[in-house]
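With this grant's support, we have settled on a layout for protein records. An illustrative entry appears below exactly as we store it:
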Amino acid sequence: MAISIQLPNDVEERLQNLAELTGRSQSFYVTEAILEHLDDLEDIYIAEQRLLNVRQGNSKTHSLEDMERDLGLAD
């Protein structure tokens, strides 16, 4: 898939310099940056959905103490 984006000049210059210094393509670094932040965005989305489920009463929460007790880990 091809995606076209407009980068601010300073970001484009930094990306170009990094690519030239390392011998890697600009595309490589753009992909790496997206992958890094995509993981974070997916985690945020999942957390928001779980919080919404808890607030709507569709999911239960458990305290650490309850989990330790149920798993036989309590002191």
